[in-house]
Specification:
The protein has 531 residues and is an alpha/beta fold. 33% of the residues lie in helices and 19% in strands. It contains 18 helices and 21 strands.
Amino acid sequence: MIRIITSLVAVLTITSVQAQTPVHETPKLVIGITIDQLRGDYLELFQSTFSEGGFKRLLSGGLVYQNIKFDFPYLDDASAIATIYTGAMPFYHGIVGNKKYLASTQQIVSSFSDPAFLGNYTQDKVSPLALKTSTITDELKISSSGNSDVYSFAPQTNQALITAGQKGNSAFWVDDYTGKWASTTFYKNFYWSVDQDNRSGSDFSTKAWTMYWSPLLSATEYKAFPFIPGDKRIFTHGTGNNKETYILAKKMPAVNENIRNSAMTLLSKAELGKRISPDFLSLTFYAGNYPNVSDYSVEIQDIYIRLDREIEKLLNEIDRTVGLKNTLVFITSTGYYDFAESDYKNEAGNNPPENKFHINRCEALLNMYLMAIYGRDNQWVDKFYNGQIYLNRKLIKDKNISLQEIQDKAAEFVSEFSGVQEVYTSFQIQHGQWNPVMEYYKNGYTRETTGDLFVELQPGYKVVNEQDASFKEKQVRNNAVVCPVIFFGNNIKPAKVKRTIKATEIAPTISYIMRIRSPNAAKEQPLSELL
């Protein structure tokens, strides 16, 4: 009798535990939404102008993490998205930014430049082969033996290539020079509905030539920044009719509408989410500011308002076609924001002198210093690019000079420049004693593309290059950008988690929900709230 009672208690206990443990069905469709430069504080500031079915629906009905952390330097959209989709740092996945400096040829090129593949509707020759590790979309393709469909849509080349991965069906981006949906012959599937869109004569590339962007709402509703006077709350921006037309158009809300429209057409025509194997659709939206306007602008609020409406239409369409209970939607930010400096002048009508760091002067003076030590007949400094100084490695090897020695001397010299906070050598990063700062820089280090010196500048200094007209001057800021991460649909219980998660935890979590392996360089465990 005692045994029977004990067995019943055990069964009831196990049943109770199982009932409390949420069991998620494998989603039929995953929608990965990356919003470039999305800011959590702006979601709060602008919420009074949002619809009920867009951001508000995600924030109230999803599992919301307060913030995401990218623990490496020189963050941009390419390095951020690669980290999200691989679950690894640039040290492993190899993408340190949109562009890279090739010391062997002394050229700055796209990180995904690949002359082995031609472009579709573009002259750019690119491929995703620069990714050194697998992505969540790659792992889905492998696990389904290729039966899962994987597509991506984005404004920029690198965004589309990363999110489609190396095994995706295709990646589509808006070409800078044609405005068409472009891709690369690396992918064999240029889906017919996208091609049809390009040939329609009423697509984004045609509309952009006569496109004007004005506020969606009345001027009185743009009051998130109370210090903007009413007469400054009206604007009109046109794309013009020159080579900058499509580049400007990709900084307007219309590009998000274009992405949502084409992606939803493909979703329907390709019947994504209707098969046994789950499918994956990656979308990248833009939420940064418009060029040459203040951070505190009506434009940035209008971008969020219009993106909110696109999110609403997207969720409604997914619910109608596949069902949100069958779909996992995850929303992430790229974790940075391109701050615009104000042109404010004080009451006397002028500004106090700016603190400037001239990278061209630093480069020239360092070269003169090394010439004085190691010989005047050679160029010892190749390039100062993206916060890093590249030394002439071939010359150093030919002269049989210790790399550690010349790096140390160069670092000591550069650290004396006004505006330099600290200088770290690649030898220190690879072989030095561990500390959090070294770990931070090592995470962003790659042997193939990283320089010899990492130069950390003091906040408030403006970085300038007098010898490069294309160089965009930028003030150094260390402001943290709060960026939420949201998991929505797939019967996920709504909750708000007030902690910062690692960017590298997202891919293992998505992989866990899809019941596939994590990308091959991902070390983190899935987020505990979704286990």
